[in-house]
Design goal:
By secondary structure, this protein is α+β, with helices and mostly antiparallel strands. The chain is 31% helix and 19% strand. It is built from 13 helices and 12 strands. The strands form 3 sheets. It has a 5-stranded antiparallel sheet. Strands 9-10-11-12 form a 4-stranded antiparallel sheet, with helices on both faces. The chain binds flavin-adenine dinucleotide and iron/sulfur cluster.
């Protein structure tokens, strides 16, 4: 499958990159077709080959050394440039020691070959997908288009008026649980947003990111006591998950201070489970409390689509993953 024709730009500074993104026509509001960012390229090139993206211009982030550093913060936290490769972050002793749940999530992404190219920013901004988008252009040609190809239709849920493609990137749930914030820049300025507020439950507009903005850094606050990330894939080895969970909480044993529970890969955005976390905070991490928390998940999972498996099966996976993660936290 040939790549659609395009011009590749290789800025060497962030300011040039932001200027090019703005000059090449990335409007403030709408997701743009004419210009796309490329970091490691493991996903964007795939989507171009499938003709979901056909940008006239690609802007590479690979020469932006400003975005390839990991800085130590005075409180013990880290500020990570989004163009850092996943393989380098997995090898960073500070991430291994202070943020092992993030390391687990990074290691869960694809294979070492892909992590060798793929970046943290590309993973955070990964496009949503479904079984229809996973097929070639030729395969799709015999069928009508969908919302992602400018048609008013969804093949996966034909009765729906919006796209339900799934966000199954691995690092976002871990970063949400760890309380990370994102630095987002454009020629218009800079803003900082908790990653928990970055994702939106819409397969077409799944990020609160304007077309002229770049996610430049991820800031992790000082490490917390206990955190885990668990991913479930139908096949062992390299695969996107059909359910992933990240949990963090302070305290020891059954004590649970400030718990955060995030479930991902079942919707267009990761879901923060508020009521189950409240139950754990009040009742601790005993078996009864864990079961009570799981019972309260249903109300917060929202509409679980039947992408990559039946909705009931996915709900069951979500419960099993949360139970497993809470028990692991208890024994840490
Ligand atoms: C075979 C295969 C298996 C895979 N398995 C997994 C998996 O198990 N788990 C998983 O999470 N992913 C998986 N992926 C997807 C992908 O490889 C990874 O998510 C990777 O981290 C993407 O990073 P990248 O730098 O290559 O992104 P790119 O392809 O360069 O970019 C991805 C998207 O993010 C945007 N983008 C990149 N950087 C920024 C930024 N700083 N600011 C704003 N937008 C930005 C791009 O414009 C593009 O839309 C898989 C891919 C393949 C091909
Ligand atoms: S979920 Fe529906 S609208 Fe979204 S990409 Fe898949 S087929 Fe298209």
């Amino acid at each position: 499958m040939l790549l659609p024709e395009h011009t590749l730009h290789k800025p060497t500074s962030l300011s040039d990159c932001l200027q090019q993104l703005s000059d090449l026509g990335a409007g403030e509001q709408e997701r743009h077709d004419q210009v796309q960012l490329v970091a490691g390229g493991t996903d964007v090139i795939f989507n171009m080959r499938l003709k979901f993206f056909q940008p006239d211009h690609l802007i590479s982030l690979r020469r932006l050394h400003e975005l390839q550093q990991v800085e130590e913060l005075p409180d013990g936290g880290l500020r990570i440039g989004t163009a850092c490769r996943l393989v380098d972050l997995a090898d960073d002793a500070r991430i291994q020691q202070r943020f092992p749940a993030l390391r687990q999530a990074i290691d869960a992404v694809a294979s070492v070959h892909i992590r060798n190219m793929g970046t943290l920013g590309g993973n955070i901004c990964l496009e949503t997908r479904c079984w229809y988008t996973n097929n070639s252009d030729d395969w799709r040609e015999g069928r009508a288009g969908c919302f992602k190809t400018d048609c008013e239709h969804c093949h996966v849920i034909p009765s729906s008026e919006q796209c339900h493609a799934i966000n199954n990137a691995d690092t976002p749930p871990a970063l949400i649980a760890l309380g990370a914030t994102l630095t987002i820049q454009s020629v218009r300025g800079c803003r900082v947003l908790p990653i928990a507020e970055f994702y939106q439950p819409d397969g077409m507009a799944h990020m609160a990111l304007a077309a002229d903005e770049i996610v430049t850094h991820v800031t992790l606050p000082a490490s917390i006591d206990r955190a885990v990330f668990i991913k479930y894939t139908p096949r062992r080895g390299m695969d996107f998950s059909i359910g992933a969970v990240a949990v963090r909480c302070d305290g020891q044993g059954e004590e649970a201070i400030d718990p955060v529970i995030v479930i991902a890969s079942i919707s267009s955005s990761p879901i923060i489970l508020h009521k189950p976390a409240e139950i754990i905070a009040e009742q601790g991490l005993g078996d009864d409390a864990i079961e009570a928390a799981i019972e309260h998940m249903r109300g917060e999972l929202g509409e679980v689509t039947n992408l990559y498996g039946r909705a009931t099966y996915k709900k069951q996976i979500a419960k099993t993953l949360v139970r497993r993660a809470l028990r692991q936290i208890r024994s840490m």
